[in-house]
Amino acid sequence: MQRILILLLLLAITACSFAQVNIWEGTACKKKVMLTPYLTEGKPHMAVIVCPGGSYFWHDIEVEGYGVAEWLQRNGISAFVLNYRTGYVPAFITHYRLIFRGNRYPDPQDDLLQAVRYVRQHAAEYGIDPARLGAMGFSAGGHLVMSGAEWFTGEDRLAFAAPIYPVVTMTHPCVHKRSRRGLMGDSRTRNKALREQLSLEKHVPADCPPIFLVNCVDDPIVDYRNSVLLDSALTAQNIPHRYIQYRTGGHGFGASDTKGTAECRQWRDEFLKWIKDR
Question: What is the pLDDT of residue 240?
Fold first, then answer.
């Protein structure tokens, strides 16, 4: 009997984990952007919108999306994986966005904002505290959640953000050029005003929410100096934040038990400690 109850509980958790919703359904926006909830039980608690990386061209959805959400769920934090709009592989291969718009800024940021609004509107249904809704992103997804932390205000303000090995700058020599092209679109990559606007180290507001920032010095994809720039900007504005710089771990490890190194995988415990103080 006990085994049957456990099995039923696991099935219930799995069912709620994959009840995807289109955040734009019923709105004037006719796009289809899916959000996948991973819910925990109990009194209203905090929740995190998870934004996987992929250079604003695709998503590392398994490692930096679903895997992260499952880890958060196991630790009593509800998670929502956001499949935000990207350029997608055809735009990466063909450069068709020189002629046609395709997906580009501000589409991902609009998707994150709508996801924040959707989750808060359904907070009672999901059993979460709308005042404790944050966002966590990886690589280009880190740029996305940090832009939300800087730009979303009033009722849309995030309670916290956790950019993990994030893309940050669009102007500094350490820029990740593929992410810049993915976000801006081929026809606008030389737009200096837009590069400045999307360089997050230059626009940290005085009321920025708390930030948890992690990266590795040996990151071969996104130059570690992106996070150094952001840490300096947060420090200059006296924003409560935690910056952990690991020597080893590389890039793309998400919340995996095997990717990266034993050193960088400590970030998960450090985040859980940090978030308890929030």
Answer: 98
